[in-house]
UniProtKB/TrEMBL annotation:
The lineage of its organism: Eukaryota, Viridiplantae, Streptophyta, Embryophyta, Tracheophyta. Residues 1-87, 100-124 are annotated as: Disordered. Keywords: Ubl conjugation pathway. Residues 52-70, 110-124 have a biased composition (Basic and acidic residues). Its EC number is 3.4.19.12. Coiled coil: none annotated. Pfam families: MINDY-3_4_CD. Residues 134-494 form the Deubiquitinating enzyme MINDY-3/4 conserved domain. This is ubiquitinyl hydrolase 1. Transmembrane segments: none annotated. GO terms for molecular function: cysteine-type deubiquitinase activity; K48-linked deubiquitinase activity. InterPro entries: EF-hand-dom_pair, MINDY-3/4_CD, MINY3/4, UIM_dom. SMART domains: DUF4205, UIM. It comes from Oryza glumipatula.
Length: 621
């Protein structure tokens, strides 16, 4: 029996080699392998049998994958012999040869196995989940124009040297996704440029330590034209990785891709691909879930050509939603019946932007929750964020952005207008450092906002006001306190004016010198939507090209003054006829000021900021 078993084993080895090589095996016989010694006990026998069975199945699957690959490239059916069932135990020499020896096409077993694994990577979404996802994003009244915007927007860098660090937007709808990803990309390009090879750099705890270092000793350069493609791609992958793990509460990231697509095949597969419904999406979408940042980083690197393709923005939005979980997404929102892509122009909703900024798809931009009583809450931003958010709507009194978004960990902000999102950033984190006056104001404002139950309306009750005074050690004279409380509510603007007239020793903000709080710094605005600009001199045949816009702004924040104080000082000095100009010297210097809607956004972060720039006005639309 033993001789017969060895003969069968030898025949199986030869058949397997023929199936892989498409030709008879070499004439030299394979060395025989003696049987393994029997285990000493019954438990050992069972364990050995189980291990052998596992090895047998693994080898069988490996051989089947290789044979499938080789059949596809073989010149004729006769080149491959039928593969018999894999033996229970295969000689180690055969296993090594199968792994290393290429077939007639020059494709090794290992390469064929890698190809097979690549084609089958990721899981399909269940049909009901795909339908729920589609309805959540686009609603049940999807316009073709809106779908076209989201089906034709990749996440790609600008080829223009001046804006090479920026992502180009060609369609109107996905700007909320692109601008937020752009903000994170700038974080890595400006402040982590030398550490982009480390997958752990996107971990918030790692970034926290680096932030302390850079705030004290580092100012990023603005020579964006020197950025290499590799550095930009790694910054993009780190940005995507951080956002996805943020959405997955730090525990997981889901990467959505298209089945049977690799870097070489992306263009060919997507050329005729149409995703017009939930069923179309379900057929082609593949999802992979990662708990390791390194594995997720490698997956994103491997699929970067897919995210750069025309489906890139949509795939990344789906990845973020699935990382958070569809049930959690709906629980975050004030009104989960509305689609995340808003009608009629297909813009990403504020909930999408908030999801990518803070990891939760909340509907509001104030800090924390607002309790309206009766168990009704409105959800805002839950905690500190890496990059922030400013909006023109606040300057129009339509909303109130909280301190979490206004004062992010890094000096980078997504900027919202009525119809578009762009990015504002500084090269030096020191622009966010607060002086004594600003720290005092921030403390008082946080205490006031904690008592504000109006959803950012800027007023509190008398009881809440008393708590603010206790928390911030403010002591108003009794007559002033009575004036503030007469109406039954206290409005922030009136409270602030009273603080500016209250001496610092009583907890107020009155500054006899008028110089505290003055700032000067440079800030940049990037609008990723491609617009027509003149390339060269129009008088000598310059041409018009499409490219994003980068604008450098000089910002000066004057000392804090009330209008009454300023006029009183000027009038007093002019009517006295005094040669002493010490009072007038305290007034803010006259500066060249330019105005644009972006300036109104900047002033929601730095009140009374004076801005100037060279060239065209910065655009937030």
């Amino acid at each position: 029996m033993g001789d017969r078993g060895e003969e069968e084993e030898e025949e199986l080895q030869m058949a397997l080699r023929m199936s892989l090589q498409g030709s008879p095996p070499a004439q030299q016989p394979e060395p025989k392998r003696s049987k393994p010694p029997p285990p000493p006990a019954e438990e050992g026998v069972a364990a050995a049998d189980a291990e052998a069975e596992a090895r047998r199945k693994q080898r069988e699957l490996r051989a089947a994958a290789a044979e499938k690959r080789l059949r596809a490239v073989a010149p004729s059916p006769a080149a491959a012999a039928p593969r018999p069932p894999a033996p229970e135990v295969v000689a180690r020499e055969v296993e090594v040869e199968v792994k290393a020896d290429p077939g007639p096409s020059g494709v090794s077993m290992e390469e064929a196995k890698a190809e097979e694994v690549e084609e089958e990577k990721g899981e399909r979404l269940p049909t009901d989940v795909a339908e729920k996802l589609w309805l959540m994003v686009f609603g049940n009244k999807l316009e073709k124009e809106v779908l076209a915007q989201w089906s034709n927007q990749g996440i790609r860098f600008s080829s223009d040297p001046e804006t090479t660090m920026g992502l180009v937007q060609h369609e109107g709808g996905p700007c909320g996704v692109l601008a937020t990803v752009q903000a994170y990309v700038l974080k890595y390009l400006l402040f982590f440029s030398d550490e982009l090879g480390n997958p752990e750099v996107s971990d918030p705890f790692y970034a926290l330590g680096q932030r302390r270092f850079y705030q004290s000793s580092f100012a990023a350069r603005d020579d964006f034209s020197s950025l290499t493609d590799d550095r930009k791609i790694r910054a993009l992958v780190h940005a995507m990785l951080e956002i996805l793990f943020l959405c997955g509460t730090g525990n997981r990231a889901v990467v959505a891709t298209i089945g049977s697509v690799n870097e070489a095949k992306t263009a060919a597969v997507l050329e005729g691909l149409s995703v017009d419904s939930a069923m179309d999406l379900q057929k082609v979408l593949r999802i992979s879930t990662f708990t390791s940042r390194k594995d997720a980083f490698n997956s994103l690197i491997a699929n970067i050509s897919l995210f750069e393709s025309r489906l890139g923005a949509m795939l990344f939005l789906i990845s973020a939603l699935l990382s958070r979980g569809l049930e959690r997404i709906q629980a975050d929102r004030d009104d989960p019946s509305l689609p995340l892509v808003t009608a009629p122009f297909g813009h990403a909703s504020q909930e999408v932007v908030n999801l990518l900024l803070c990891g939760e798809a909340v509907s509001n931009v104030f800090d924390g929750k607002v309790d309206f009583g009766g168990g009704m809450f409105l959800n805002g931003i839950p905690n500190d964020v890496e990059v922030g958010f400013l909006t023109l709507l606040e300057s129009l009194n339509f909303c109130k952005v909280g301190q979490y978004l206004k004062c992010p960990k890094w000096p980078i902000w997504v900027v919202g207008s009525e119809s578009h999102y762009s990015v504002l950033f500084a090269l030096n984190p020191n622009v966010q450092e607060e002086n004594e006056l600003e720290e005092r104001e921030s403390k008082i404002r946080r205490a006031f906002d904690a008592q504000d139950q109006s959803g950012g309306g800027g007023f509190i009750s008398v009881e809440g006001f008393q708590q603010v005074l206790r928390d911030t050690d403010i002591n108003f004279p009794s007559d002033k306190l009575e004036d503030l409380c007469n109406a039954g509510i206290i409005v922030w603007s009136e409270f602030w004016q009273a603080l500016l007239q209250l001496d610092k020793r009583a907890g107020g903000m009155k500054d006899p010198t008028g110089l505290m709080g003055k700032k000067q710094f440079t800030i940049y605005h990037f609008n990723g939507i491609a617009k027509s600009v003149l390339n060269g001199n129009a008088n000598i045949g310059g041409s018009t090209i499409q490219r994003p816009r980068l604008c450098k702004l000089n910002v000066s924040v004057p000392p804090r003054w009330t209008q009454d104080e300023y006029l009183a000082d000027v009038v007093s000095a002019s009517t006295s006829g005094s040669k002493d100009d010490s009072v007038l010297s305290l007034a803010p210097p006259v500066q060249t000021s330019q105005h644009a809607p972006l300036v109104d956004c900047i002033r929601t972060r730095w009140p009374r900021a004076v801005c100037s720039w060279v060239g065209d006005m910065p655009s937030i639309v």
